[in-house]
Design goal:
Layout: H1 6-9, H2 18-29, E1 44-55, E2 58-66, E3 76-82, E4 89-95, E5 106-109, E6 112-114, E7 117-127, E8 133-142, E9 148-150, E10 162-174, E11 179-188, E12 193-200, E13 208-215, E14 224-233, E15 236-244, E16 260-267, E17 272-275, E18 280-281, E19 289-293, E20 303-308, H3 317-320, E21 324-325, E22 332-337, E23 340-345, E24 353-361, E25 366-370, E26 374-380, E27 386-392, E28 399-404, E29 409-413, E30 428-432, E31 440-445, E32 448-453, E33 458-463, E34 472-476, E35 481-487
Parallel strand pairs: 1-21, 13-17
Antiparallel strand pairs: 1-2, 2-3, 3-4, 5-7, 6-7, 7-8, 8-9, 10-11, 11-12, 12-13, 14-15, 15-16, 16-17, 16-18, 19-20, 20-22, 22-23, 24-35, 25-34, 26-31, 26-35, 27-28, 27-34, 28-29, 29-30, 31-32, 32-33
This protein binds beta-D-fructofuranose.
Amino acid sequence: MKEWTREERYRDLKKEDLPELKTLHDQVRQSRWRCDYHVQTVTGLMGDTNGFSWFNGRWHLFYQWFAYGAVHGLKGWYHTSSPDLLHWKNEGSAIAASLPYDNKGVFSGSGYAEGDILYLPYTGNHRDENWVRTPYQMLAYMTKDGVIHKQEEPLYGPVDGYTEHQRDPKMFYRKEDGYYYFMIGVQNTDKKGKFLLMRSKEIRRGWEVAGELKIRGYDDFGFMVECPDLERVGDDWLLLFSPQGLEPQGDEFHNIYNNTYFIGKMDFENLEFIPNGPFRELDRGFDFYAAQCAGQNVYPDKAVMTAWFGVSDYTYPPTAEEGYSGLQTMARILTIENGELRQRPCEAAQELKGHKALHKESSDFELEGEMPASSVIDVIPSGKSFNLDLYRSEKHSGFTVSYDADTCYLTIDKSALENQINTDYGTERKVRLEKGLKEMQIFADHSSIEIFVNDGEYVLSSRIFPNASECFFEAKGEGMEAVVYRAEKTVEDDFVIFPEQAGK
Ligand code: FRU
């Protein structure tokens, strides 16, 4: 793999580089791991979900982006949009480094729409000539014509009492006290990850430190909290965040960094979150991080969420060698039902089901055949144990999904696939289903697998990179039923680097 110098990684995005980026995109388009219905990086590296929102009659989803290769370099935001959370259009570079405050990166942030404006608070990653970092909380905003402007002065500079790690503002408005808030993840001087709330009566100015958000009964979230998000979902509050440095606990927190959540009540007077359930991992697969809920009012008692289908400090060599890396998960609708989180695929996802590629039901069940590289698989178990084998070859098994009816364990195992990634963190994940397995829907898309279990009780998201010979499906299980549908293509792989190319 190519070694990147700092100079190469911190190249500004320039119009004169379009021919170079076109060549890169032409190469990327050929990749067997390009997806049909996931938002994927146009070129280079994609990271966190940013600025996710409903504005001006469309969904807007931005992502952390470095255009020139699959390395963490000078980050900006790339913009995509959709009418239905399933058909996505590339809109081009949205926010690029241009101010002294964001000279070494436009880091993550959120989307908050009010009136005719979509506010896009983000973190400016400033570094001086000695490479010393200072974080600034900044504001960009999009007007209805789709043009994005930057406010030149920060909303807030570095907050005393914390290290250089202060970032990822998630903005919201609280009508009870008339304050706008944003929450950032911070590291205190004892190197502990914390949540910090800022507030103001106006979006563009007047910000002050409201204080640290305490979590009742919990104090240790590792050395840094990234991408925190506080959402009202029905009568409950959901606190999502990506802590770094957690130890595995039982079947949870086995990835290098994990995306986690609490459900509870929010006490704004005392800045305290009061969980009414355990500390949980948001997604139980191998690759999931930096989830963000949309600023939206389309689903008033629900949240709409996507995440980076990857994890910081993991590498994805199969596509990185082809000049790209990174994907966003499918959009999910989140509800809290009887105190429990449910994550279901966005409604439009059911439209993905094209013709039936494979289907069988019988008491002595065995189904095998060629698997469309992009497919939706409905599984109706019989209460007995079963085994599914996705992207297997004629010689060996692929990504296996098995259910043990005696222990009620659902296990995914990627160890048999030819291209192995990030194996230091294990090749198996397990979920114990207290009430057994009732149904399962699997979304597979060339290089990704999302498994929705028991109507959104759990989701397991994993990246895989099957070779050409790894193209078969097999299911074995007494009395079960499985239907494999070929999935439709809903995301075009069009070459748009600058908004003008998208017709703006
Ligand atoms: C999370 C993160 C954020 C930061 C961004 C930089 O993956 O480290 O905290 O804003 O990525 O790309």
